[in-house]
Specification:
The protein is mainly beta. The chain has one domain: Pnp Oxidase, Chain A, CATH 2.30.110. It is built from 1 helix and 10 strands; from the N terminus they run ββββββαββββ. The strands form 2 sheets. Strands 1, 2, 3, 6, 7, 8, 9 and 10 form an 8-stranded antiparallel sheet that branches. A hairpin with a 7-residue loop joins β4 and β5.
Length: 152
């Protein structure tokens, strides 16, 4: 299957746990799928204007997931609650989080696998009686590594 160019950014899915049997979660926005190469500057001795940049470590931001609050407990809520209420004497369970951009037919076109993800921030709000909007929650996940795969 050949992906249409450009790929639509509004048709996506997020899977927590990495496989199709795990809980799917509906989100309105996903961000944080970025990778940046740090670098070090080395000044050449005797040459005032010569600065070399050499590659360093890879780093990335947190995966940020936004969704409307649901009125019942779900597996994602339970996982976040366990991580946030942990006193560090209790193990936090990392999971693979898979984000896929989908074709118009619902097939994955591009997939990002975020390995060893775990909740680091959970924000609710704001509530505003004058706006009449859906109550939103934001979940931030730290992750060890992200890989991108093209399905077509």
């Amino acid at each position: 299957m050949t992906a249409p160019y450009p790929v639509a950014g509004f048709h996506f899915e997020v899977r927590i746990g990495g496989d199709a049997t795990r809980a799917h979660a509906a989100f309105t926005e996903v961000s944080g799928l970025d990778v940046e190469r740090e670098f070090e500057e080395i000044r050449e001795h005797g040459e005032d204007g010569m600065v070399h940049q050499v590659p360093g470590r890879l780093r990335h931001g947190n995966l940020v997931l936004k969704r409307g609050m649901v009125g019942t407990s779900d597996p994602l809520f339970t996982w976040c609650q366990e991580a946030m209420e942990s006193d560090l004497g209790t193990q936090i369970t990392p999971r693979t989080v898979v984000v896929s951009l989908l074709s118009p037919e619902g097939d994955p076109l591009i997939t990002w696998n975020c390995s060893s993800a775990w909740p680091v921030k959970w924000a609710i709000g704001p509530f505003d009686a004058q706006q009449g909007q859906v109550a939103m929650e934001t979940i931030e996940l730290a992750y060890h590594r992200v890989t991108r795969e093209y399905q077509g």
